[in-house]
Protein backbone atom coordinates (compact mmCIF):
# COMPACT_ATOMS: atom_id res chain seq x y z
CA UNK A 1 0.00 0.00 0.00
CA UNK A 2 1.73 3.12 -1.14
CA UNK A 3 0.87 6.73 -0.69
CA UNK A 4 2.23 7.40 -4.14
CA UNK A 5 -0.75 5.79 -5.77
CA UNK A 6 -2.89 8.45 -7.32
CA UNK A 7 -6.40 8.67 -6.02
CA UNK A 8 -8.47 8.43 -9.16
CA UNK A 9 -11.70 7.72 -7.40
CA UNK A 10 -13.82 10.78 -6.93
CA UNK A 11 -15.80 11.45 -3.80
CA UNK A 12 -19.45 10.79 -4.50
CA UNK A 13 -21.92 12.78 -2.48
CA UNK A 14 -25.25 11.04 -2.75
CA UNK A 15 -28.02 13.24 -1.44
CA UNK A 16 -31.33 11.78 -0.39
CA UNK A 17 -33.61 11.95 -3.42
CA UNK A 18 -37.23 11.21 -4.05
CA UNK A 19 -37.63 8.08 -6.13
CA UNK A 20 -40.93 7.86 -7.93
CA UNK A 21 -42.81 4.73 -7.01
CA UNK A 22 -40.04 3.53 -4.67
CA UNK A 23 -40.40 3.09 -0.95
CA UNK A 24 -37.99 5.28 1.03
CA UNK A 25 -36.42 3.07 3.63
CA UNK A 26 -35.92 4.56 7.07
CA UNK A 27 -33.94 3.32 9.98
CA UNK A 28 -35.40 1.44 12.88
CA UNK A 29 -38.86 1.26 14.34
CA UNK A 30 -41.66 -0.84 15.69
CA UNK A 31 -42.65 -2.32 12.32
CA UNK A 32 -43.01 -5.97 13.22
CA UNK A 33 -44.41 -7.12 9.89
CA UNK A 34 -42.69 -9.89 8.02
CA UNK A 35 -40.86 -9.27 4.75
CA UNK A 36 -44.24 -8.73 3.12
CA UNK A 37 -43.20 -8.70 -0.51
CA UNK A 38 -39.72 -7.31 0.00
CA UNK A 39 -38.27 -10.08 -2.13
CA UNK A 40 -38.00 -9.26 -5.80
CA UNK A 41 -37.33 -11.62 -8.68
CA UNK A 42 -35.07 -8.96 -10.22
CA UNK A 43 -32.83 -8.65 -7.17
CA UNK A 44 -33.29 -11.74 -5.01
CA UNK A 45 -30.06 -13.68 -4.72
CA UNK A 46 -28.48 -11.67 -7.54
CA UNK A 47 -24.71 -11.64 -7.30
CA UNK A 48 -21.78 -9.88 -8.94
CA UNK A 49 -18.38 -10.76 -7.58
CA UNK A 50 -18.48 -10.32 -3.82
CA UNK A 51 -21.77 -8.38 -3.95
CA UNK A 52 -24.73 -10.46 -2.79
CA UNK A 53 -27.98 -8.60 -3.28
CA UNK A 54 -30.20 -11.20 -1.62
CA UNK A 55 -33.67 -9.59 -1.28
CA UNK A 56 -32.46 -5.99 -1.09
CA UNK A 57 -34.49 -3.35 -2.89
CA UNK A 58 -35.66 0.24 -2.55
CA UNK A 59 -34.08 3.52 -1.51
CA UNK A 60 -31.63 3.14 1.40
CA UNK A 61 -30.98 6.38 3.27
CA UNK A 62 -27.89 6.97 5.40
CA UNK A 63 -25.81 9.94 6.53
CA UNK A 64 -22.93 11.00 8.72
CA UNK A 65 -19.14 11.04 8.54
CA UNK A 66 -17.49 12.89 5.71
CA UNK A 67 -14.29 11.01 6.52
CA UNK A 68 -15.66 7.84 4.93
CA UNK A 69 -17.51 9.60 2.12
CA UNK A 70 -15.04 8.70 -0.61
CA UNK A 71 -15.18 5.04 0.40
CA UNK A 72 -18.97 4.93 0.72
CA UNK A 73 -19.31 6.66 -2.64
CA UNK A 74 -17.27 4.03 -4.46
CA UNK A 75 -18.85 1.14 -2.57
CA UNK A 76 -22.33 2.50 -3.34
CA UNK A 77 -21.58 2.63 -7.06
CA UNK A 78 -20.25 -0.93 -6.99
CA UNK A 79 -23.25 -2.20 -5.03
CA UNK A 80 -25.86 -0.43 -7.15
CA UNK A 81 -24.23 -1.69 -10.34
CA UNK A 82 -24.76 -5.24 -9.10
CA UNK A 83 -28.14 -4.71 -7.42
CA UNK A 84 -30.33 -2.73 -9.78
CA UNK A 85 -33.24 -2.72 -7.33
CA UNK A 86 -31.40 -0.64 -4.71
CA UNK A 87 -30.58 3.07 -4.52
CA UNK A 88 -27.99 3.99 -1.86
CA UNK A 89 -28.27 7.61 -0.74
CA UNK A 90 -25.53 8.68 1.67
CA UNK A 91 -25.24 12.29 2.83
CA UNK A 92 -21.93 13.50 4.24
CA UNK A 93 -23.22 15.81 6.96
CA UNK A 94 -20.68 15.03 9.69
CA UNK A 95 -20.75 12.39 12.40
CA UNK A 96 -22.79 14.40 14.90
CA UNK A 97 -25.57 15.26 12.47
CA UNK A 98 -25.59 11.72 11.10
CA UNK A 99 -26.13 10.20 14.55
CA UNK A 100 -28.94 12.66 15.24
CA UNK A 101 -30.70 11.78 11.97
CA UNK A 102 -30.39 8.10 12.84
CA UNK A 103 -31.75 8.65 16.36
CA UNK A 104 -34.69 10.50 14.84
CA UNK A 105 -35.48 7.44 12.74
CA UNK A 106 -34.69 9.20 9.46
CA UNK A 107 -31.96 6.87 8.17
CA UNK A 108 -31.16 3.17 8.01
CA UNK A 109 -27.66 3.66 9.41
CA UNK A 110 -25.24 6.43 10.28
CA UNK A 111 -21.50 6.83 9.81
CA UNK A 112 -19.62 8.10 12.85
CA UNK A 113 -15.90 8.57 13.45
CA UNK A 114 -16.46 8.23 17.20
CA UNK A 115 -18.25 5.43 19.05
CA UNK A 116 -21.71 6.03 20.43
CA UNK A 117 -21.95 7.64 23.85
CA UNK A 118 -23.92 5.82 26.58
CA UNK A 119 -26.70 8.40 26.38
CA UNK A 120 -26.93 7.92 22.61
CA UNK A 121 -27.24 4.16 23.04
CA UNK A 122 -30.00 4.74 25.58
CA UNK A 123 -31.79 7.11 23.21
CA UNK A 124 -31.51 4.63 20.35
CA UNK A 125 -33.83 2.20 22.13
CA UNK A 126 -36.70 4.48 21.12
CA UNK A 127 -36.09 3.77 17.43
CA UNK A 128 -34.61 0.27 17.69
CA UNK A 129 -37.69 -1.63 18.83
CA UNK A 130 -36.57 -4.32 21.26
CA UNK A 131 -32.89 -3.53 20.67
CA UNK A 132 -30.34 -0.72 20.58
CA UNK A 133 -27.82 0.92 18.29
CA UNK A 134 -24.38 -0.67 17.96
CA UNK A 135 -21.05 0.41 16.47
CA UNK A 136 -19.68 -1.62 13.56
CA UNK A 137 -16.07 -0.56 12.73
CA UNK A 138 -15.77 -0.29 8.96
CA UNK A 139 -13.31 2.26 7.55
CA UNK A 140 -9.83 3.04 8.86
CA UNK A 141 -9.24 6.74 8.33
CA UNK A 142 -5.71 8.00 8.92
CA UNK A 143 -5.77 11.66 9.95
CA UNK A 144 -3.08 13.73 8.27
CA UNK A 145 -1.54 16.94 9.56
CA UNK A 146 -1.73 18.99 6.38
CA UNK A 147 0.08 22.28 5.84
CA UNK A 148 0.84 24.90 3.23
CA UNK A 149 4.02 26.85 3.87
CA UNK A 150 5.70 28.12 0.73
CA UNK A 151 9.25 26.78 0.44
CA UNK A 152 8.85 24.15 3.18
CA UNK A 153 8.58 20.70 1.64
CA UNK A 154 9.51 18.68 4.73
CA UNK A 155 8.15 19.38 8.17
CA UNK A 156 8.31 17.49 11.46
CA UNK A 157 6.02 18.29 14.37
CA UNK A 158 5.14 16.61 17.65
CA UNK A 159 2.08 16.47 19.89
CA UNK A 160 3.28 19.29 22.17
CA UNK A 161 3.94 21.66 19.29
CA UNK A 162 0.67 20.77 17.55
CA UNK A 163 -1.27 21.35 20.75
CA UNK A 164 0.29 24.80 21.15
CA UNK A 165 -0.35 25.66 17.49
CA UNK A 166 -4.03 24.72 17.61
CA UNK A 167 -4.46 26.40 21.01
CA UNK A 168 -3.15 29.63 19.41
CA UNK A 169 -0.05 29.72 21.65
CA UNK A 170 2.45 29.23 18.80
CA UNK A 171 1.59 31.83 16.18
CA UNK A 172 4.55 32.01 13.78
CA UNK A 173 6.15 29.33 11.62
CA UNK A 174 9.65 30.32 12.71
CA UNK A 175 8.81 29.78 16.38
CA UNK A 176 11.77 28.21 18.25
CA UNK A 177 9.72 25.11 19.15
CA UNK A 178 9.09 24.35 15.47
CA UNK A 179 12.65 25.24 14.48
CA UNK A 180 14.05 22.82 17.07
CA UNK A 181 12.16 19.94 15.43
CA UNK A 182 13.33 20.98 11.96
CA UNK A 183 17.09 21.69 11.99
CA UNK A 184 18.33 23.00 8.68
CA UNK A 185 14.84 23.90 7.42
CA UNK A 186 14.34 27.56 6.55
CA UNK A 187 11.10 28.47 8.31
CA UNK A 188 9.50 31.80 7.32
CA UNK A 189 8.43 34.63 9.60
CA UNK A 190 4.85 33.89 8.65
CA UNK A 191 1.63 33.82 10.66
CA UNK A 192 0.12 30.39 11.26
CA UNK A 193 -3.47 29.93 10.11
CA UNK A 194 -4.80 26.84 11.89
CA UNK A 195 -7.92 25.30 10.33
CA UNK A 196 -10.46 23.24 12.26
CA UNK A 197 -13.92 21.87 11.49
CA UNK A 198 -16.95 24.15 11.82
CA UNK A 199 -19.50 21.45 12.59
CA UNK A 200 -19.45 18.59 15.08
CA UNK A 201 -16.99 16.10 13.68
CA UNK A 202 -15.59 12.70 14.56
CA UNK A 203 -12.35 13.80 12.92
CA UNK A 204 -12.11 16.64 15.43
CA UNK A 205 -12.89 14.20 18.24
CA UNK A 206 -10.10 11.83 17.21
CA UNK A 207 -7.57 14.59 16.54
CA UNK A 208 -8.15 16.15 19.95
CA UNK A 209 -8.06 12.73 21.62
CA UNK A 210 -4.55 12.44 20.23
CA UNK A 211 -3.59 15.86 21.62
CA UNK A 212 -5.06 15.02 25.02
CA UNK A 213 -3.31 11.65 25.19
CA UNK A 214 0.09 12.70 23.84
CA UNK A 215 0.34 16.29 25.14
CA UNK A 216 -1.92 16.56 28.19
CA UNK A 217 0.05 19.45 29.68
CA UNK A 218 -0.50 21.56 26.56
CA UNK A 219 -4.04 20.57 25.54
CA UNK A 220 -6.37 21.48 28.40
CA UNK A 221 -9.69 21.15 26.60
CA UNK A 222 -12.17 18.39 27.38
CA UNK A 223 -12.47 17.26 23.78
CA UNK A 224 -15.38 15.86 21.82
CA UNK A 225 -16.85 16.40 18.36
CA UNK A 226 -17.14 20.18 18.79
CA UNK A 227 -13.99 22.31 18.45
CA UNK A 228 -13.19 24.05 21.75
CA UNK A 229 -9.87 25.88 21.39
CA UNK A 230 -9.84 29.65 20.77
CA UNK A 231 -8.79 31.28 17.53
CA UNK A 232 -8.00 29.65 14.23
CA UNK A 233 -10.08 29.33 11.08
CA UNK A 234 -13.10 27.07 10.69
CA UNK A 235 -14.24 25.23 7.58
CA UNK A 236 -17.19 22.98 6.78
CA UNK A 237 -16.46 19.30 6.27
CA UNK A 238 -13.28 17.47 5.38
CA UNK A 239 -13.30 19.01 1.92
CA UNK A 240 -13.63 22.50 3.40
CA UNK A 241 -10.56 22.07 5.62
CA UNK A 242 -8.55 20.71 2.69
CA UNK A 243 -9.59 23.61 0.47
CA UNK A 244 -8.83 26.19 3.16
CA UNK A 245 -5.32 24.86 3.75
CA UNK A 246 -4.58 24.56 0.04
CA UNK A 247 -5.61 28.15 -0.64
CA UNK A 248 -3.79 29.76 2.31
CA UNK A 249 -0.03 30.20 2.61
CA UNK A 250 0.83 29.61 6.25
CA UNK A 251 -2.08 27.25 6.87
CA UNK A 252 -2.17 24.01 8.84
CA UNK A 253 -5.06 21.66 9.50
CA UNK A 254 -6.09 18.09 10.21
CA UNK A 255 -7.88 15.99 7.64
CA UNK A 256 -8.33 12.44 6.43
CA UNK A 257 -5.50 11.02 4.34
CA UNK A 258 -7.80 10.54 1.36
CA UNK A 259 -8.47 14.29 1.19
CA UNK A 260 -4.79 15.09 1.67
CA UNK A 261 -3.68 12.85 -1.18
CA UNK A 262 -6.47 13.79 -3.59
CA UNK A 263 -5.76 17.47 -2.91
CA UNK A 264 -1.98 16.95 -3.25
CA UNK A 265 -1.38 18.62 0.10
CA UNK A 266 1.85 18.58 2.08
CA UNK A 267 1.77 16.35 5.18
CA UNK A 268 3.91 16.72 8.27
CA UNK A 269 5.77 13.85 9.91
CA UNK A 270 5.32 13.23 13.63
CA UNK A 271 7.97 12.80 16.29
CA UNK A 272 6.19 10.28 18.51
CA UNK A 273 9.02 9.13 20.74
CA UNK A 274 9.97 6.34 18.34
CA UNK A 275 13.52 6.17 16.99
CA UNK A 276 12.66 8.43 14.07
CA UNK A 277 9.74 10.60 12.94
CA UNK A 278 6.80 8.70 11.47
CA UNK A 279 5.38 9.52 8.04
CA UNK A 280 1.71 8.86 7.39
CA UNK A 281 0.93 5.92 5.13
CA UNK A 282 -1.90 3.40 5.10
CA UNK A 283 0.60 0.90 6.50
CA UNK A 284 1.63 3.08 9.44
CA UNK A 285 -2.03 3.76 10.21
CA UNK A 286 -2.95 0.07 10.08
CA UNK A 287 -0.35 -0.61 12.77
CA UNK A 288 -2.29 1.63 15.12
CA UNK A 289 -5.67 0.07 14.29
CA UNK A 290 -4.34 -3.45 14.84
CA UNK A 291 -3.36 -2.37 18.35
CA UNK A 292 -6.90 -1.20 19.17
CA UNK A 293 -9.07 -2.98 21.72
CA UNK A 294 -12.79 -3.73 21.44
CA UNK A 295 -14.38 -2.04 24.45
CA UNK A 296 -18.06 -2.16 23.44
CA UNK A 297 -20.47 -4.49 25.22
CA UNK A 298 -23.72 -6.28 24.35
CA UNK A 299 -22.70 -6.78 20.72
CA UNK A 300 -21.27 -3.29 20.30
CA UNK A 301 -17.84 -3.40 18.62
CA UNK A 302 -16.58 0.07 19.59
CA UNK A 303 -12.78 0.28 19.50
CA UNK A 304 -10.35 1.99 21.85
CA UNK A 305 -7.31 3.36 20.03
CA UNK A 306 -3.89 4.03 21.58
CA UNK A 307 -3.29 7.64 20.59
CA UNK A 308 -0.09 7.95 22.64
CA UNK A 309 1.66 4.99 21.01
CA UNK A 310 5.42 5.17 20.59
CA UNK A 311 5.62 1.98 18.56
CA UNK A 312 8.09 2.05 15.69
CA UNK A 313 6.46 3.11 12.45
CA UNK A 314 2.98 3.59 13.95
CA UNK A 315 1.04 6.73 13.04
CA UNK A 316 -0.92 7.68 16.17
CA UNK A 317 -3.61 9.95 14.71
CA UNK A 318 -6.15 7.59 13.21
CA UNK A 319 -9.88 7.22 13.34
CA UNK A 320 -12.15 4.32 12.59
CA UNK A 321 -15.52 5.14 11.10
CA UNK A 322 -18.33 3.05 12.55
CA UNK A 323 -21.59 2.26 10.85
CA UNK A 324 -24.28 2.85 13.48
CA UNK A 325 -27.19 0.45 13.10
CA UNK A 326 -29.90 -1.18 15.20
CA UNK A 327 -29.02 -4.66 16.40
CA UNK A 328 -32.75 -5.46 16.62
CA UNK A 329 -35.88 -3.61 15.57
CA UNK A 330 -34.91 -2.66 12.03
CA UNK A 331 -37.88 -2.11 9.75
CA UNK A 332 -38.67 -5.10 7.61
CA UNK A 333 -38.35 -3.09 4.40
CA UNK A 334 -34.99 -1.65 5.47
CA UNK A 335 -33.31 -4.74 6.82
CA UNK A 336 -32.50 -6.69 3.60
CA UNK A 337 -30.81 -3.72 1.91
CA UNK A 338 -28.99 -2.69 5.08
CA UNK A 339 -27.57 -6.15 5.68
CA UNK A 340 -26.66 -6.71 2.03
CA UNK A 341 -24.83 -3.40 1.73
CA UNK A 342 -23.00 -3.73 5.06
CA UNK A 343 -22.03 -7.32 4.24
CA UNK A 344 -20.53 -6.11 0.98
CA UNK A 345 -18.50 -3.22 2.42
CA UNK A 346 -16.91 -5.42 5.10
CA UNK A 347 -16.08 -8.12 2.55
CA UNK A 348 -12.45 -8.82 1.71
CA UNK A 349 -12.97 -7.48 -1.80
CA UNK A 350 -14.45 -4.14 -0.67
CA UNK A 351 -11.93 -3.68 2.13
CA UNK A 352 -9.06 -4.40 -0.27
CA UNK A 353 -10.09 -1.38 -2.34
CA UNK A 354 -9.60 1.01 0.57
CA UNK A 355 -5.83 1.40 0.26
CA UNK A 356 -6.21 2.80 -3.27
CA UNK A 357 -8.36 5.55 -1.74
CA UNK A 358 -5.85 6.25 1.05
CA UNK A 359 -7.86 4.50 3.74
CA UNK A 360 -6.62 1.73 6.04
CA UNK A 361 -8.46 -1.62 5.71
CA UNK A 362 -9.77 -3.30 8.84
CA UNK A 363 -7.49 -5.91 10.40
CA UNK A 364 -8.81 -9.41 9.59
CA UNK A 365 -9.71 -10.24 13.19
CA UNK A 366 -11.92 -7.15 13.55
CA UNK A 367 -13.52 -7.62 10.12
CA UNK A 368 -14.53 -11.18 11.04
CA UNK A 369 -16.32 -9.95 14.16
CA UNK A 370 -18.12 -7.25 12.18
CA UNK A 371 -19.38 -9.83 9.65
CA UNK A 372 -20.73 -11.93 12.50
CA UNK A 373 -22.56 -8.95 13.99
CA UNK A 374 -24.14 -8.06 10.63
CA UNK A 375 -25.43 -11.61 10.18
CA UNK A 376 -27.38 -11.34 13.44
CA UNK A 377 -29.07 -8.01 12.68
CA UNK A 378 -32.85 -8.30 12.82
TrEMBL record:
PROSITE patterns: PROKAR_LIPOPROTEIN. The keyword Transport applies. Pfam families: PBP_like_2. GO terms for biological process: phosphate ion transmembrane transport. SUPFAM superfamilies: Periplasmic binding protein-like II (SSF53850). GO terms for molecular function: phosphate ion binding. InterPro entries: ABC_phos-bd_PstS, PBP_domain, Phosphate-bind_PstS. Phosphate binds at residues 65-67, 95, 113, 201-203. It comes from the Bacteria. Keywords: Phosphate transport, Signal, Transport. Residues 55-348 form the PBP domain. Residues 1-24 form the signal peptide. One of its GO terms (cellular component) is ATP-binding cassette (ABC) transporter complex. The keyword Signal applies. Belongs to the PstS family. This is Phosphate-binding protein.
